[in-house]
Amino acid sequence: MSIAVPTVTEAFEKRFGAKPELVVRAPGRVNIIGEHTDYNHGFVLPMAIERETAIAGRRRDDGLLVARAENLNRDVTVRLDERVRNAAEPWIDYIMGVVDELLKAGKTPVGADILILGDVPLGCGLSSSAALEMAALCLFEELGGFNFDGPEAARLGQRVENNFLGLKSGIMDQFISRCGKADHGLFLDCRSFAYDLVPISFDNALFVIANTKCARGLTASKYNERVGECGEAVAALRAGTGREGTHLRDFTLEDLEVCRGGMSEIAFRRARHVITEDVRTQKACEAMRAGDKVTLGAFMTASDISLRDDYEVTSPELNAMADAARALPGCHGARMTGAGFGGCTINLVDADKAAAFCAELMQGYTKATGIVGELILSRPADGAGRMA
Fold first, then answer.
1. Phi and psi torsions of 173, nearest 5°
2. Per-residue pLDDT tens over the stretch 193-204
3. Which domains does the chain have, with CATH numbers?
4. Which residues are catalytic?
């Protein structure tokens, strides 16, 4: 855990004049490989990180949610029976979306005084939004005396994004934030929701997260645009093969080549990334399970190039960070992570070269871009839950 319970409780007492009943937390995540595959019913391999969102709470009996976002120095009071978007305080939408989905699921969230405190960097692709959603769900579960299993909790979080926030996102971020385990990655089939916790145990190697300090520019419209382009490719593949597949997961690279003439060049390249990324992710999981850092690193780099050239979701800053990393001794692979257009890279680095790697990477990135980046070192963390 990265946030101490006394830090959260003291902030709560300062705001509300009494101790909270409980404190819950949920982590951010970094995706090792498997990007833009989740909403295509493919495979992903993320890990939870030691950056998290904590919520201290105390129940109320008047149907109100009195909320403070400590990091933003903002307060808002909303009614649980008036579940609408809040243009003035958009951060509360993530919590009200959880309330909305709980009611649809037949659960009754109770009113509460809550204080939110987090250290997941915002807007850099480490899933601060999923951490907030999963922490809020934990809070309502604890106060309301009900519980969802891990996969259903993740699906509820995805519905918050899809239904309340209008983003056609997949399930990966909520799944790893809820179901992550210390010292493990999570290999997830985004169609069946079957998952496997895979030990991360390399001989002399670790993951280094590098933040470009350029907030993600992937708006809902850009994200949804990629979803639409994948849908165009699926329609062409169905027509060309005569098969009833519903997502790119259902087709092979050979199918794509055969049906190339029936889709736009953009749709072809988007589909090529997704189909090859699914294969890379499955093989990368095998390499990680075997402790093969060289092979895993090679797949990470191949993923990055595909995201840059075929899916076109990198940025000059992400490219500069990844290129600088791959040129340094001890780096086995580097790739952008998250939705793209800004945010972070993830790098697999020899542990005995990590200190020099980190220093030289930041120097090289600043020289190339004029921007001072940020490094985040984290072991794989546990998923969401109540804090002692």
1. -60, -45
2. 999 999 998 889
3. 5-199+381-386 (3.30.230.10), 205-377 (3.30.70.890)
4. 173
